[in-house]
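[recover] target loaded
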């Protein structure tokens, strides 16, 4: 089941492309109007609901990780449904990047949307909705973010309008992710990440080199920081060297 969070995720061609990349060959139901989402009273991406042969939800798991437990639940439900010779082995899952389980700590920075409809904790100048404006990064309290450069803050995302621009966030977590996408022309956008004013080094995420360099090539979630020493407070900064990049939301782990 696929329920979109952002407009580009409503495009079934994007869903098909990601499914192919992940090796998913079974049918995927598209829930663009959130009817199934609301029926389950769901609040999470991803969410796993394990339903038995009688149609009852027997187990739930939200977020990444706990793959062994999920597989054993499936095996047990198959046996209860009368399946014979159910394989009791557990597949080896080599989760990397955003597929890895979160830190599990509850005091990490919250998911933060950058568009004005759901945006919060913006520490730069007053928001100018749907039109280009110059922004400057001021002091950043914990869990706040700011902009440097000329940006348009739209309903669900922000867009860099020419030249270079920067986004900064004062966060408390192990991992930092940012949903990004190139502009309408689809041209790659180069960026440079700093953590506490320096290249991330061993704290770099899977979408960033140790020197902080990376490129936005498609609309998706990018892992930019993967803390090597667990959860901590850090100042994150990403500077874009090309215009027209779109940024949607921060998530943390």
């Amino acid at each position: 089941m696929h329920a979109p969070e952002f407009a580009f995720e409503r495009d079934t061609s994007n869903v098909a492309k990601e499914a192919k990349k992940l090796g998913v060959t079974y049918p995927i139901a598209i829930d663009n109007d959130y009817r199934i989402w609301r029926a389950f009273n769901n609040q999470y991406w991803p969410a796993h609901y394990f339903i038995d042969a009688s149609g009852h939800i027997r187990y739930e798991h939200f977020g990444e990780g706990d793959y062994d437990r999920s597989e054993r639940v499936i095996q047990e439900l198959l046996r209860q449904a009368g399946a014979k010779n159910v394989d009791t082995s557990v597949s080896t899952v080599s989760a990397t990047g955003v597929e890895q389980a979160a830190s599990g700590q509850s005091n990490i920075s919250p998911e933060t949307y950058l568009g004005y409809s759901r945006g919060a904790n913006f520490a730069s100048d007053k928001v100018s909705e749907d039109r280009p404006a110059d922004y400057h990064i001021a002091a950043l309290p914990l869990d706040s973010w700011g902009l440097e450069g000329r940006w348009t803050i739209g309903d669900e995302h922000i867009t860099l309008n020419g030249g270079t621009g920067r986004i900064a966030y004062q966060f408390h977590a192990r991992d930092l992710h940012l949903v990004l996408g190139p502009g309408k022309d689809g041209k790659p956008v180069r960026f440079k990440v700093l953590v506490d004013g320096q290249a991330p080094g061993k704290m770099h995420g899977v979408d960033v080199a140790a020197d902080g360099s990376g490129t936005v090539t498609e609309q998706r979630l990018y892992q930019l920081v993967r803390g090597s020493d667990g959860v901590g407070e850090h100042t994150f900064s990403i500077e874009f060297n090309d215009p027209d990049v779109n940024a949607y939301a921060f998530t943390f782990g």
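[recover] notes: The first strand starts at residue 47 and ends at 51.
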